Amino acid sequence: MPTSNDPSGPSGQDPAGDRPPGGNSIPNVPGAEWVGEQREVGKAAGAGLQFGLTICVFAVAGLWLDGRFGTDPWLLVTGVLLAFFGGTVSLIKKYT
Fold first, then answer.
1. Tens digits of residue pLDDT in 11-55
2. 83 lies in some domain
């Protein structure tokens, strides 16, 4: 009687038969090949959200500073441009 927590039986295969041999973590079920693609879509969606939110935060900060110092619209424009170029550099570093 095996005493380990290994779900595989004495033959080394998963008793349910839904995992391929060789220790691959992707189950051998319909649709499993989409797991890697879904991960990539999630990364791209996260990067896009981060990029957009960064621009929004800098735009709001620029609007607030413009109202405080009376420099309409220069700090808004500067903030948006800084966020755009900074976000672009970040994306290039992250994905190349």
1. 555 555 555 555 556 666 666 677 778 888 899 999 999 999 999
2. yes
Say how far apart CA 13 and CA 79 lie, in whole Å. Answer: 58
Amino acid in position 10 = P
Six-digit token string for 84: 């755009």
Residue with tokens 């170029």: 85
> Domain count of the chain?
1
Q: Taking the model in full, what pTM does it have? A: 0.64
Is 33 inside any structural domain? no
Residue 89 lies in a domain: yes
Assess if residue 67 is contained within a domain.
yes
Q: Cβ atoms within 10 A of the Cβ of 58, count?
A: 21
To the nearest 10°, report the CA torsion of 22, 25, 30, 35: -140
